[in-house]
Amino acid sequence: MASMFSLPSEVMLTSLISQFPCREQQIRCLATLLAIRGAPSRNIVLYGLEATGKSAIAKALLQKLSTEPDNSLVNGDSDVPLDQLRYAVIKSAECITGRHLLEQTVGAVAKAVNWEGNVGRCENVAQLVVELGRMLEGWRTSDKEASNYRIVLVFDGIDHQREAPPTLLPGLARLGEIPLDPTSCTSLVSHTSTSPPTPSPNSSKFSHLLHQPPNSPSGAKETQETWSRFTSAVYDSLSKHSGRDILSFRSISLRLWPRFIKPILDGQLSATPFSRLLVANRSLFQNETVLIPGIISEPPLAKPGALVQAGNESKGKFQGIATQLPYYSRLLLVASYLASFNPPRLDTVHFMKSASSKRRKKGGGTALSRSSTTKRRTISRKLLGPQAFVLERMLAIFHCLKDDADSRGRHGNGNDRKRERQNGSADIQMAIATLASLRLLVKMGAQNAGDAMDGACRYRVAVGWEVVRGVARSVGVEAEDYLAD
Amino acid sequence: MSDVGETNSHTGFDTIDHQPAYIYTPSGTNDDALERPTKRRKVARGRPSVLQPHDSINSLVFEPLLGEIETLECVQQRQDLFEKCWSETDARIQSILNEANEDTLAEVTAFVDSPGDINQDDDERVPASFIVTGPNIASQDLLFKQLSARLKKEINGPIVTLRSGDASNMKAVLKQLIRDATNQRSEDEELSQERNGRKLLNYDLDILQSYVKKHGSQRVVVAFQDSEAFDTNLVVDLVILFSSWMDRIPFTLLFGIATSVELFQERLSRAASRCLYGFRFDVEQTSSILERIFQSAVANSKASLRLGSEIVASLMERQHDHVQSVQSFIVALKYAYMCHFYGNALSILTDPSTSSQLLLKLMKPCHFEAIRMLPSFRKLIELRVESQELDRARELIQDDAILVQEIEGALESKDGNILRLLRAFHVFASALSEPPSGIDLYMTIFEGALSNSDYLKRALDSIKRMTPNDLVVFIQRIKGAIENGSHELDLDGWADEDEGLIRELRDVEMKAVGLSENSADIEKSIRSSDAIHSKGLRTTVIAQRVQLSYEKSTITEAEKEFINLIDHVSKLLEQYFALENPKDLFLNELWLCDSADSFLDVFAPRPRAAIENALSAPYEYLTCEIGGSEEGLSSTHPPTAIIYQSYLEAGSLINMADLWTTFHEILSSKEGDEGDEREALMQFYRALADLKLVGMVKQSKKKADHLAKVAWKGL
């Protein structure tokens, strides 16, 4: 009789280990814990940082284990029981609710064990247990040759499950205890962790990355050489100091690669003195914008200067809005900024018409109160970020600004009839609603609570000082005049 | 109050005390008319007998005008005319709108069809196209409708448009997505929501996957119409979800972005932006579309109704100040058409398809009377009087037959006059290398102010700075404009009608060409007329002193000739652009719509100001009997107005007890002695509920028994 304990075949393991470098220990460990004749355990939690290969290794290992030809058969020992290992992977990211997860689980298990009967609804963990019991029982009766059965459920990213009921995790963890089948096993893969598994040295990453990029300048060997040196350069200059995960490293390398080899393709340089190539492309490695994942893909062979310019463009991203917004929307935006950053008690100083001589005075307050504020050492409002304001207050500020802007700007000759018309106009309310729906103003509190135009509704401005100053100047208002501190 | 309270307590038990609810019956409920205060506005008297022939009137929406003595025939005529005119204009506008987004549509479709070379097989990133539409959210609707129609035609696969309004949470979005996607092929039987004998949840993307498999869909396009208004977390979740399904369902995303792509990306989490890649597509700016629509719908020679400068100015100002939206412009234009044909009984005369004789047969004495009321008629009479044609003036006023002749003449010359204005418009716009915006130019011309305007002055000045070669180019442009006409304005070339001008221009051109050739031969360039006249300033330093002396430049023969040419051209142009003010023409009211006041009231309503005004001055809206006519607090005002008055006088926190005391005092002063306190209380409650409904007060959290003031007057 074959021994009760035997490890999975070494051939399979080595192939896996070569596929996933630096994971030998983890792979062996997992293989032992998963293999039927290994040291089976009911629950396995795989944890670690993002992009460290947890899901990939688990899937690959289970794939091999489930298709592995039984090594006992090789020995020709006929009375050795046949092992049957099946697995089902459930991605939590694809499950919208906790119930969805359970339904998916049932579906995946039914597929794994070739269940052909009807599958009932599965609303909670208890029902899941019943359904799983039926299926596994059916599997055992249909597949009589094997004597050792084992089903592995992989819950990928279970800790990020949306709308998970509080009993879900404990329930799933105890799935293995339920005497459906003595050899069923639950394996949980989760992403969060405090201590990551040993970080892999960088050389390993290259070996993983040695899939050839699409456009290669010359012979395969030369390309290989250039690629490996290129990746090490990328790692040293960019990846080492930013996130160290392999996915971002790979994406950065792939993004930079076409631009890196462009001189070779153009025939300006050859690949052999790598240092010259590196020097010619040094701007690529000095620029950090490539680290931010961009949702706009740049044209594949952009000019070398293009990336440098990209940084400057981000500064102008609000300028477009300033010119596109209608006049009163711009004024409203400025008023919202002032309402957000000025303390309400200083409004009289800045906006009262009777005290127009005091208007330019910044800070406000008397000498007495000022001395007390220095003692308290309050934090500047600008540093505290935008505060919430009541819509009605912003409207009042808006009307002050409007008078000012109109008299200074285009309606210099004072068209009173026109000015009167803006009070309580539906157009102004529409402008506020538009700003809110563009998220330039952010509504505080519950999204659906109260009407957007309710006077007591609280908002916060979502644009910064630079933008507001530009916007204010475009309508002829100097925002600094009205700003405390 | 205390008095009342005491008497109540002394009387002991009241039957009302034990009722579960107090039923408030306002006094004087016997008469229905009294319960609801009558409005001051004049309501139409009994419908006259015009509407009796029922079957023929069924489709008649317009009302008879001129004191309701207008014949039905005329009403019908007006309505038909409106429908015809507007449908023509609308068709032109729609064609422009359709082709305006054509480029964007083509680009996006091409992208969706083959999302770039970056895509690899194992790539889990979702291809996305970011369509930057500008901050006018209203135009996104049209764009996305066009997009989905176009994509449906060209792409094999479902197209779903999501709006922020119906996307409250993930489940709802997915449900809608699946439902919309699977319903797009109506000929199919209901898609089975089962897989392997398992009934799927209705938000399970497995359903979509089986649909995709069944129909072999090449793409599943999901469009986020107003992506900024979506809850950011929702977008992030959806993007990550779609990316994890990418290996089974070929998703493509479209984002309508009002601000900028960078801002949008800033809101996304890193994980989500890693799952996206794509291109940005810019939509044509609203202002340029607007200009094109203006040219084809307002300035077009086939447009049957002209907009006056005042109305265009107010429309454009609104576009600039409040909403940059093509849709609102179109709506305003339609309203102008409606107003014109609905409210102007004389608009029947503008029908271009019927001869003026036929039209004049429709005219009734009332029409002539109406024409005599027109300002332009008055101007005509004044003109006659000034030129000492008193008899003619008298006849025009008294004799209908003479008036008919005059009208006939005016109608016949109408088209010519308009054409002349539009031709001047076109020539002016195309002659300059940097023409003013078409809308501004149109406004100036239809004010009749072109001859004195800055535009003309600037144009004439620029001629003076021209060299002979420039002049040739300039004249060629003018000639081209006259000969070729304009496609946007539907103007045909009119070279044969303006032969004199063309001939003159050709002369000048020949001479200028000759001059420039000569000057090239003798290698001495001819200076522009400005440069010739400007005196050269010469500085000489003699014995450490600076001497300034003006140097009269010498003028060659050729230059002299050139100056004459230039003067000739500017005279020609001045003559050509000396246009009549369309408002001075007789019967301009028939084809020129120019009253901006009604527009602002319709398109920029002021609901808040109206409510505040109604509450603070109810006598403006209600009859005196009920509303009273005095300002300030008055017991005759409706209770809500009384409370509103004291509300205005209060601070930001309002003590309920004080408010009630004031209210009760005012009410009891009306009735002389203390009335029914309970009834007063009911009115008080009702009035407060009204204020709360309007959103002016809310419960204060700071103090018990206090109300927080939410709205201030006049904001």
TrEMBL record, chain A:
Its main location: nucleus. Residues 186-207 have a biased composition (Low complexity). Residues 186-225, 353-377 are annotated as: Disordered. GO terms for cellular component: nuclear origin of replication recognition complex. Residues 19-178 form the Orc1-like AAA ATPase domain. Gene3D superfamilies: P-loop containing nucleotide triphosphate hydrolases. Residues 325-483 form the Origin recognition complex subunit 5 C-terminal domain. Keywords: ATP-binding, DNA replication, Nucleotide-binding, Nucleus. Pfam families: AAA_16, ORC5_C, ORC5_lid. Residues 227-286 form the ORC5 lid domain. One of its GO terms (biological process) is DNA replication initiation. It is found in: Nucleus. One of its GO terms (molecular function) is DNA replication origin binding. Belongs to the ORC5 family. This is Origin recognition complex subunit. It comes from Lachnellula subtilissima. The lineage of its organism: Eukaryota, Fungi, Dikarya, Ascomycota, Pezizomycotina. The gene is Orc5.
Automatic annotation (TrEMBL), chain B:
Residues 368-589 form the Origin recognition complex subunit 3 insertion domain. InterPro entries: ORC3, ORC3_ins, ORC3_N, ORC_WH_C. GO terms for molecular function: DNA replication origin binding. Residues 51-349 form the Origin recognition complex subunit 3 N-terminal domain. GO terms for biological process: DNA replication initiation. The keyword Phosphoprotein applies. Residues 1-12 have a biased composition (Polar residues). It is found in: Nucleus. PANTHER family: ORIGIN RECOGNITION COMPLEX SUBUNIT 3 (PTHR12748:SF0). This is Origin recognition complex subunit 3. It comes from Lachnellula subtilissima.
